[in-house]
What we know:
Elements: H1 2-24, H2 34-67, H3 85-113, E1 121-128, E2 131-139, E3 145-150, E4 153-156, E5 161-167, E6 172-175, E7 182-185, E8 194-198, E9 204-210, E10 222-228, H4 230-241, H5 248-258, E11 284-286, E12 292-294, H6 297-305, H7 324-327, H8 330-342
Parallel strand pairs: 1-5, 4-10
Antiparallel strand pairs: 1-2, 2-3, 5-8, 6-7, 6-9, 9-10, 11-12
The structure holds copper (II) ion (CU).
Amino acid sequence: MIHLLIVGVLVVVATLGLGLLLTQTGILPAQASQQAITIDWLFDIHFWFIAFFVALICVIIVYSLIVFRRKQGEKGDGVYMHGNQRLEIIWTIVPIGIVLWMAVIGGQTLSDVERRDPQAITVDVFASQWSWRFQYEVTTAEGVQTAVASDVLVLPRNQQALLRLHSQDVIHSFYVPEFRVKQDILPGGEKYVRELRITPNTNGTYTVQCAEICGQGHYSMLAEVQVVDGAEFTSWLTEQAADCNLSDAECGLRWAETFGCLGCHSLDGTAKIGPTWLGLFGHAVELTDGSTVTADHNYLLTSIVDPNAQIVAGYQPNVMPQNFDELLSEEQINQIVAFIESLGN
Ligand SMILES: [Cu+2]
């Protein structure tokens, strides 16, 4: 009886220590969405169960090892016990009850996390090796429907965002640890578009990281996420929807940012996944077939709309996306070329 009491007390103490360590010491990232609160609630319940069972098992083992060890002069094995029906019924019923209850709260949490808000704003997310593009539908003051593309995901606080996830090549995965929720992104067109709902509740800057190995540049597939006040979001969107009224080269830089070119091309001479744009225009480029061409206006244009036509020596074909002639307008492509030309000498 005294053994039972000591083990009981030790289990309670160990459970408390381990449980508090797991739930109170901030081993999870900060919470920045409504969904994160719900998911962490479920997490904490699991942490407490884990703490209890680890404590139960470890305390009994360690206690037995020490207290019931074979003492000097003792002979033979311990007494075997079998066939305790009452115990067997208890250790069958109790775990079944726990598992069923966890299934119920798991289901409730899932439906809570996926709850649909009819007021949700929609953002189309385009993942490709190895960049992110976010597209918003906007109606301008003149009543014209237009799309805004951005390389930063800006979301208003306390409003549900419905992300529609598209992949242009392989399987990617959308994951912002502070939002907790995660969703794989499948190629294959509209039929395979997956949805993810997030209600950010804390202003700040976060990072979306691809959570599915997707090729040699997977590690670099990151994008910034900004959660801002509703009013700030609206003015940001309006500003983005306005036509680019800067110089051609400046607009070109803007498109190169929003369409993810700068994930692969540097502006400072360093090689990334693709060649740098610094000092490219007007200079000789060596190609994989051994020939040399001058990077003139036409060469740049072709490199963008038909990248496989000429492959730069030391690089692979099919790494640069092949669909920029569909994604970008002719004007946008010309502005990007103007921007690359401005980096020429
Ligand atoms: Cu990816």
